[in-house]
Amino acid sequence: MRRRNASAKIFIGLVALALLSFALLPIVWMCFTSLKTRAELFGAPGRLWPKVWTFSAYRDVLAHSAFPTYFANSVIVNVLASLITVLLATLAGYSFARFRIRGKSVLMLGILAMQMFPSTVLLIALYVFFRRFDLLNTYTALVLSYITHGLPFSVWMMRGFVDAVPVEVEEAAMIDGCRRGGALLRVVVPMMLPGMIAVALFAFLAGWNDLIWALTLTTSPAMRLIPPGFVLTYVGQFETYWNQLMAGSVMVSAPTILVFVFLQRYLVQGLTAGAVKG
Amino acid sequence: MARRDRGFALATILPALLVLAAIYVYPLLRTIGYSFTDYDLINRTNHFVGFANYVSLFSDPTFYTALINTLALGIAPMLGAFLLGFTEALVLNEITAGSGILRGLVLLPWVVPQVVIAFLFQFMYNPTVGVFNVILKDLGIIRTFQPWLAHPATAPAAVVLAYVWNETPFFMLMLLAGLQSIPNEIIEAAVVDGAGWWQRLWFVTLPQLRRIIAITTILTVIWNFNNFTIIWPMTEGGPANWTLTFSVWVYRQAFQDFNLGYAATIGVLWLGLLLVVTGFYLRAIGGRDEAP
Q: How many helices and strands, by DSSP H and E, does chain A display?
């Protein structure tokens, strides 16, 4: 196993290189395209490096399109939804982990099954509901809907994280005069912080991926989020400004990639902890 | 449980349960209700019609098209992503120097937003400026640029490739964690017994990863079944329904034709299919008291 000959090493290296290229080339292509001029895009479509490096596509997207509005809306809705998801999931996850509750296992399975429900189906009735109460084109409807993306799985994740915190720590705090709520806030929450970050990240990434809710629940351009913004701007156009579209794509990908680079170990822990053991 | 604890448990669990009831249980029940009506937002009808929607659905050829496409676009990308992701995990498990950076880099396709993936691949498939066309033409595989997403024979495969690119890192991540949790002694024992690389993979590694393989493959199939964000911008279900999945069909019926009763009926049957798959998932995670 550990003793390997040179040809095996080279083979592994080549496979690694091929897989790395598969993963990265589309991203590299996106970045370079965003730095090209429109003329070059059509003149030399196969050229990887831009001949003339320019930020004009970024300038056009930021200054002459509704992109900044869409971007701000996406950030507002996703941040609010992630925060609410973390709050609800932490509270519920704590009690699911710590107390014996009748029907708990059925409840937990039901919650997990919810994560598998297709948004499209839920959307039919919620659309009618939001429409009747004049909530289309509001942050309220969007935030409430965006909680659907992460909450069920988050309850499971938080429950797992609380399970990993030793009960004795809390008991000690309660003997010292803390009530349960105080013990949760002062002792458990600091220890679960990595878990809460993982849940927030999971909820944020899930929401950032949504198209159908945002597309359906908003009609006014002022309330539009990025994904429907892209679809309604670029789909079906005869001539697409690909360099601008790729510039927008880079800017939309940047937050998730940055957040992920800094916080990935929390998310990876959260996702793999339960699935690997046992 | 002490009485004070009971109050505390209720106060902490109830908010989450109420929100879940509002955004999952309520719409689910309403959708089932709509499936027995001719609810239509344009013709403004809303009468009870019994099983009429279900009867017409089963005689609607589009239903079978959507069923086959949903299954195909659910399973095919999973297989591709599993094979690539597993290979990645095996390679990363062998490499010692720089494997952290390498893992971070191959994970990137998983965090690129799906709407970006949809447009990025659309751009690469583009019939006038798409880089796939340039490469394939330079290699002599095609003679003229092809509209990959507009052709019935290639559109589904083109969509599958975008899914595979997006999902491969998820398999890598989970399977690598699984590989690293296999005790070294088991592998060494197999080496001592004279097992070659393939034999170790087949008889030692794979059985150890059974649970995590079941979880990741089923989850991915479910996610693919429900995907809308990648497929809608790429094809909108076309050309000629060749990539029409349930999620696209429900969207068209409900929010383009505003035929909510029929859309709800499709949704209910689709949900039934999903519940079967979810049942497999719940069995794979071992039921009651373990995290997914």
A: 13, 0
Give the start-to-end residue ranges of the domains of chain A: 1-63, 65-276
What's B35-284's CATH class? mainly alpha
pLDDT in tens, B109-152: 999 999 999 999 999 999 988 999 999 999 999 999 999 999 99
ipTM: 0.89
Q: Hey, of A2, A127, A136, A211, which one would you mutate to test binding to chain B, going by the most B CBs within 10 A of its CB?
A: A211
Q: What would the pLDDT profile of A218-229 be if each residue is shown by its tens digit?
A: 999 999 999 999
Domain ranges within chain B, ordered by starting residue: 1-25, 35-284
Cβ atoms A136, B292 nearer than 8 A: no
The CATH fold of domain A65-276 = MetI-like fold (1.10.3720)
Please state, in angstroms and as integers, the Cα–Cα distance from residue B179 to each residue in B83, B126, B133, B211, following that order. 15, 39, 38, 12
Cβ–Cβ below 8 Å for B165 and A22 = yes
Under a CB-based contact definition with an 8 Å cutoff, are residues A124 and B267 in contact? yes
Which of B90, B115, B138, B251 best tests the A interface by mutation, with the highest count of A CBs <10 A?
B115
The C-alpha angle B254, B258, B264, rounded to 5 degrees, equals 40
Q: Which amino acid is at B106?
A: V
Could you write out the DSSP letters of every residue in chain B? Answer: --HHHHHHHHHHHHHHHHHHIIIIIHHHHHHHHHTTB--BTTTTB--B-TTHHHHHHHT-HHHHHHHHHHHHHHHHHHHHHHHHHHHHHHHHHH--TTHHHHHHHHHHHHHS-HHHHHHHHHHHH-TTT-HHHHHHHHTTS-SS---GGGSTTTHHHHHHHHHHHHHHHHHHHHHHHHHHTS-HHHHHHHHHTT--HHHHIIIIIHHHTHHHHHHHHHHHHHHHHH--TTHHHHHTT-STTTT--HHHHHHIIIIIS--HHHHHHHHHHHHHHHHHHHHHHHHHTTSTTS--
Nearest to B113 among A180, A209, A261 (CB): A209
